[in-house]
TrEMBL record:
InterPro entries: AraC-bd, Homeodomain-like_sf, HTH_AraC, RmlC-like_jellyroll, RmlC_Cupin_sf. Coiled coil: none annotated. This is Helix-turn-helix domain-containing protein. It holds the Pfam family HTH_18. The lineage of its organism: Bacteria, Bacillati, Actinomycetota, Actinomycetes, Kitasatosporales. The keyword Lipid metabolism does not apply. Keywords: DNA-binding, Transcription, Transcription regulation. The keyword Transcription regulation applies. It comes from the Bacteria. Residues 158-255 form the HTH araC/xylS-type domain.
Length: 261
């Protein structure tokens, strides 16, 4: 990792890449699929990150933290100049958290504990273990806020979502996508609900929000982001972003600036 402050590794099996500590990563930095014998918490104190698994992609802006259980293959991509904090969670604590990848809201206490644990060397034996227990307790009580974009197993649905991944601003209707992949509108609608747990409109909106977070984190204006991601006007983008992320895109960008300074 570039610009490392004190990222450390621990002994592991060859296929794993366990990391713990803090580092500044450039926009677009990518970690290939890997797994860990322990659980992993990743927090972007500034910037944003996306965690991808076979179950889909989770995005975490600076007010959220990601959790990946042990032995769960995953990759990361970072957006904006990212102050990334990584924590390994021992197996004896993993049972306190959900058994699937997720994203949680970051409370003030959780944020300070994450920063303290990754900023400073351990001064007293057991201090880091005690602080990690506080972090796990906070996550166990936090509500999941996943910004999760699930992926399909059906070939027709995968082909349709691939077209949208290639161009999130694509204005195609569900019927038009169906004609492109050889499926009826009704079939695709059923598959979105059955395999992805949401409507076509909701899935595409979430996909666009994922891309919007990346653009905003990299410094693109709210208006430009709205256009690039497929919204016809900034106000509808602001409404959608606020509903899913929990704050306006302008406030999100202001928070990024504050985190960096």
């Amino acid at each position: 990792m570039p610009k490392g402050r004190h990222v450390s590794t621990t002994p592991s099996e060859p296929e794993e890449a366990p990391l713990q500590g803090a580092a500044w990563l450039p926009h677009g930095y990518h970690l290939d699929p890997h797994s860990h014998a322990q659980g992993q918490i990743v927090y972007a104190a500034a910037g944003a990150l996306a965690t991808a698994t076979e179950r889909g992609t989770w995005v975490a802006p600076a007010n959220r933290v990601t959790w990946t259980p042990p032995r769960f293959a995953h990759s990361h991509r970072f957006y904006g100049e990212t102050d990334v904090r990584l924590l390994a969670v021992p197996l004896d604590l993993c049972g306190e958290l959900v058994d699937h990848p997720s994203v949680f809201a970051v409370s003030p206490l959780l944020r300070e504990a994450l920063l303290a644990l990754t900023d400073k060397p351990e001064r007293r034996p057991g201090a880091h273990k005690r602080l990690l227990t506080v972090i796990v307790d906070e996550l166990a009580d936090a509500a999941e806020q996943s910004l999760h974009l699930p992926e399909a197993s059906d070939d027709r649905l995968r082909a349709a979502t691939a077209l949208l991944h290639e161009d999130p601003a694509r204005l195609a209707t569900l019927a038009e996508l169906g004609r492109s992949v050889g499926a009826s509108e009704r079939t695709l609608s059923r598959l979105f609900h059955a395999q992805l747990g949401m409507s076509f409109h909701r899935w595409r909106t979430t996909l666009r929000i994922h891309h919007a977070l990346a653009h905003l984190t990299d410094g693109m204006s709210v208006t430009e982001t709205a256009v690039v991601c497929g919204w016809s006007n900034p106000s509808s983008f602001i409404d959608a972003f606020t509903e899913i992320v929990g704050q306006t895109p302008g406030r999100y960008q202001a928070g990024l600036h504050n985190d960096r300074t």
